[in-house]
Amino acid sequence: MFAYIMEVYRTNVCICYIAQMQTLVFEVYKMNMRIQESMSMYEKLNILTDAAKYDVACTSSGTARKGDGTGMGNCERSGICHSFSADGRCISLLKILFTNECIYDCKYCINRRSNDVVRTSFTPDEVCALTMEFYRRNYIEGLFLSSGILKSPDYTMELIYAALYKLRTECSFQGYIHVKAIPGANQELVRKTGFLADRMSVNLELPTAEGLKLLAPNKTRKNILTPMRLVQNRMAENKQELALYRNAPRFVPAGQSTQMIIGATPETDYQIIQVAESLYQKFELKRVFYSAFVHVNEDKALPARTDEGPPLLREHRLYQADWLLRYYHFQASELLSEENPNFNVVFDPKCNWALKNLGQFPVEINRADYKMLLRVPGLGYKSAVRIVKARRLGVLDFPDLKKMGVVLKRAMYFITCSGKMLYPTRLEEDYITRNLLDAGERLPEELRNMGYRQLSLFDDVRFTEDGLSWKARAGGAV
Amino acid sequence: MKKIYLCSDTITGLFSAIYDAWETGRREEECGISFRESMEQELFCEYYETQETEKKARAVESMIKRHLGRRVYWDIYHAALSGDRRKGDAILGTMLAARQIPDSTRIMEHLSHPQVERVFELSRNVGGEAHSYKGFLRFKELENGVLYSEITPKNQVLTCLAPHFADRLPLENWMIYDKTHRMFVVHEAGKKWVLIWDEGIDRSFASRESEQELLYARLWKSFCRTIAIESRTNPKCQLSHLPLRYRGDMLEHM
């Protein structure tokens, strides 16, 4: 902004020939004031949306609530997507920062205090007006309010609380609200805010405490975990209250989530899913979101900038593994290990696990228990449930499986129906790997566009060599 | 000879035809249903005009609810809203098939029956489109403060959308116009919604927007543009989630 003011000022100089320093300072001051005052809603929204776009994820699921007829809004359990942006991500909530005036200096963040970006803040009234007007035009499903740290964590949390309070009471807004708990803020404030929101999240920022120390010097692991624990405990208490009084106010009914940045620090996939697993177990989080690191700042502590763009495939594999942890009864230690700490580039984590554990296959569809069915590549939890139900009525064969939505192309190497496989196949890792690849296993974009290279007879097609592991691909990260 | 009942493409029409057909036949080969608008005459059939009455439709509705259960009615109702030409036969076939099995309420589990499978697919298709429109529909504020929206769905989803928006915006005057089927759903603040067939209603009022409308439309468009992360641009992914046919009525894609 300063550059802009100087630009304007220089033109002024040319025209008016003002030379005295005092006038200059005064002029700049005046100009500055004018710009600050005249920043319209349009500009503010642009700045604070742009600053919020790296936050994941814009989900509106987890609460079902009918409108009570006196205000505006309701919630659907499944969530509703209202649009999709050019990057293919869903737009469900009005995702904005309350302010980008931040006192912290996190190296990966566009709003770090040492960055020269235009700063602005909403007022609680503006947030309410935007949310209500967007909501009644059916643009959005609710509000996702995050914020930079203005003055202090307490001050910021108070502003957020004020905005939500106004929205819920004065505007009678009954739609979805996702709000960030600010680490280091007063516990009572966090608690009070939780009663107004549907989902609360505290950003873990980086998977490990060392990473945090390196890239976010103003934040500590302890400060982040404290509000997370608070929300967890309060939710457990709230469950008791609701059991006793059905109409007791609800505390964070859609659960708690968190997010971490992937690829800014040198953690392995194994470390990351271990962190996620312990968050699910110890903090009872609803979701952990992973956000591929996007280069917005230049800093020597950040990985070198490459042409590859954000590590999207890695993010994808982590989400796949995350699903395995939450819905498929997998343990992090089964998917990866110290010796083999990164996900396979070519195969998804489940397929990779199956190839490494061929001793447990083939699985007999008509007899295997539900948990084992879940572990078969090509079988999702829906088809597993259908199989368990359908086999009570009769013996299942391969055509029946196909009707139930099983991906036989993938599953056929791992299952038998009444003791027979679909085709005569060998239970060998190399054989199955080769066949899966031949069968047109859809390779990830990154691999398809890898270009040409000479193949040697002894190449390992699964690319598990160090040559292609994540760490090396990150380009000398830190 | 097979008897085919002709009706209009509405719930009342379709259910009235089912009422008539129900009395003639016990098997699929004996009776069928066709729509006047999209009829293709077949050989060796007798065609009958259906007298469409509210009473017949209600009788069929309560019969389905009583004998097949509310969940099956939900599926049949949604299938009946579909834009598919042969939905009448599918629904009639399903109801006839339900007669044959011991527990009629479990008819929707018999997916191996071709007509039941069709009803299942149609119902899923209509439900899916209705869910999409719950998100993709855009209201604009008119001069008089009424919220107005136009959509072009393949199926008659208005009756699925109306309860959702009535619950969501109970204190607003709003209306949605279905351009494909030329129908309105109108909701007056604090009252129940009503369905209106468009018989030459002058829609020029729709172009008189309120002063605020332009401001918020501009804010929303710029929000949608800004929220995308440039280095993650992925039009294919966007296209798979938001097919082009929805975009014509969406403010941010106009």
What would you say this structure looks like, in words?
The complex is a heterodimer of chains A (about 475) and B (about 250). Chain A has about 475 residues and is α/β, with parallel strands linked by helices. Chain A folds into 3 domains: about 1-35; about 40-335, Alpha-Beta Barrel (TIM Barrel), CATH 3.20.20; about 350-440, no CATH class. Chain A has helices at about 1-15, 20-40, 40-50, 125-135, 155-170, 185-195, 210-215, 220-245, 270-280, 310-325, 330-335, 350-355, 370-375, 380-390, 400-405, 410, 430-440, 445-450, 470-475; strands spanning about 85, 90, 95, 140-145, 175-180, 200, 255-260, 285-290, 365, 415. Chain A has a 6-stranded parallel β-sheet with strand order 3-4-5-6-7-8. A two-stranded antiparallel ribbon of chain A has the order 1-2. In chain A, α6 packs across α8 (about 220-245). Chain A is globular, with a radius of gyration of 26 Å. Chain B has 2 domains: about 1-130, no CATH class; about 135-255, no CATH class. Chain B has 9 helices and 8 strands. Chain B has helices spanning about 10-25, 55-65, 70-80, 85-100, 115-135, 160-170, 210-225, 235-240, 245, and strands at about 1-5, 30-35, 45-50, 140, 145-150, 175-180, 185, 195. In chain B, the strands form 2 sheets. A 5-stranded mixed β-sheet of chain B has the order 4-5-6-7-8. In chain B, α1 crosses α2, α2 packs across α3 and α4 packs across α5. The longest helix of chain B has 23 residues, at about 115-135. Classes of the chains: A alpha/beta (about 475), B alpha/beta (about 250). The interface between A and B is large, with 50 and 48 residues.
